[in-house]
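Notes from the 1:1 (GR / supervisor)

We went over the backlog. Supervisor wanted to see one worked example end to end before approving the batch request, so GR pasted a single chain during the call. The sequence is below; no edits were made to it. Supervisor asked that the structure be written out right there so they could see what the output format looks like.
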Amino acid sequence: MERFCPYCLSPVQPGTACPACGRDWEAYQPSSHHIPPGSLLHGRYRVGRVLGEGGFGITYLGRDTVLDQRVAIKEYFPTFLVSREVSVTLDVTCHTSGNQPTYEKGREQFLREAQTMAKLDEIPEIVRVKDHFPEHNTAYIVMEFLEGKTLKELTAQNGPIPAPDLLKRLGAVLRAMEAMHQAGIIHRDISPDNLMELKNGTIKLMDFGCARDFQGSQTETITLKHGFAPREQYTGRDQGPWTDVYALCATVYYCLTGKVPPRATLRDGGEQDPLIPPRQLGADLTQEQERALLRGLAPKAKERWQSAAELYAALYGQTMEGAPWQETERRESQDSQEEAQEKEKEGRPGPAKPAGRPKWFKAGAAAACGILLVGAVLALPRLGGSGAAVLPDTSEEDRVLQTDTSETSSQTEEEPEDERLLPAGQDTPLPNTDFEPEPAPEPEPEPEPAPAPGPNTGGQTSTAGQTGSAAQPSAPSQPEEPAAPTQEELEAQAETAASNGQYTIAAEAYRQMNSLGYLSTAGLGEQLCELGDDALFDDENTIAAALYQESADLGCADGKRELAGCYEFGAGVEQSYEMAFQLNLELAQANYGAGVYYDVADAYTDGRGTSRNPEQAIYWWNRYLETGSTTFIDPDEVRARIAELEAEL
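Structure output shown during the call:
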């Protein structure tokens, strides 16, 4: 049997180093589920060493034997669903038969990633797809091989990059991002290790494993990198071009300062925001450039630049078309401020919303998994995927860029636990709440009881009102009722408990706030839903499902949406496609949005959780088309599905 070097895929002989690259090829030991070096896929692609591996896939070095050129090969391999023992077969096998439908759907969506990336072939700053195909009961995407160094590597090796130099090189990336968003695609994993500078100085955007066409699978909220992912990515809701804007601005921040920004869940954008402006860390930005960058890093999505074109204009002082540009405030921000001022004038407080709490996610779990397994269960149509075409400069020793990972060791150093974890009981300044509750009225003093005659006084009383020559103690006073905790005390209690992973304690604090009138019922539902998200991040699925259930019972649509996901994937509750469908149908009938229209239409099409019903499927597919959304599935594909269903009728 012919053998091949896993590092360069040249033929080798046992007992000797590779004649082409000089490496000790026999020292390479792949895991038992990795395709052995030298294997041939699709009759033309020779497989080499593993370049990266995440929870949803494996990326290999490869060689196209027809064109005789190196490629990168990405394999769909969701470890929580499948396994493989290559000594027996190269085919993957689902852990259980119940996993088969989920796996098959994910495999189909994986192949759609190639179609997603193919839409971007004309953008030179984005890695190109060469081929895709199913094989070995899984699927593969073949991409161009890139040689160079990532921005993360360049910054780590050489220190912060000067602002003029960095911005000069990133202008083309911003143009590529805008074109990508115009094509209806969101990357969702932009970071310093997914931007590679090639030898000719060009920077390319890589790793589309989390891209938009993967919505509908479990991977929407699976993969994120602390410090580079915005807040909405932790919940999987309300993502869009502004999500990539945050990630790119965080990448720029890292390259300019050498420091990973604080994770978005620790930030509120106010005076207590731990994000240090980059100029204070030595970045040579102008004031206008810093202001543009910080707005791109706004924790709240609506306060951010909404497109790469806006960010480009703010950073460079001109539009992508070369026209002069001047910053304008967002109308929605003005509306929000005007509404708050109007309420204040009328003296009618809105629902009290506790300040955004810092959330601490257990570092041990993240380190053990290599990715943040944010409950592979959220039922929103989702993005995501497996590894990426992240290819190292071959001049360095076996550099493997981690894909689909959460924070790396350098990120952990930038964000030590003792600086993030709020000690229990510590009082911390809190942002102003929407309103202060009126103080309870002072109780009326009770009349003092008449003193009893003393034994030696003959009933005479002193001028002090006490009998006898020696004053007698008055009757004991009525014990005082303990004062109700203040809103600030309960908020601090909830924040501390949530930061320490004590979600049931935090939930009880919010319930007490609701009972005392500090928090509306709708606000309680929202807070319980957020706590459910936090619990899900910590793999506390049972607690998460219970919090989502309570949130849904309080009328929170987001809580009901997440509860549907728990039922669909059996997270914290017994798996039930029927319950998931019923919850999603209720949301769809309440006009929740494109995501539930997609799920309901898909369920009626496949007969999952309900009887197969082509007529209902057509109705809900049309409802999806009416939204104009391109986030969950391409409209052309929807029309093709409708045509197939109509042909059955």
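Supervisor's comment: Residues 567 and 579 are 6 Å apart (CA to CA).
Batch request approved.
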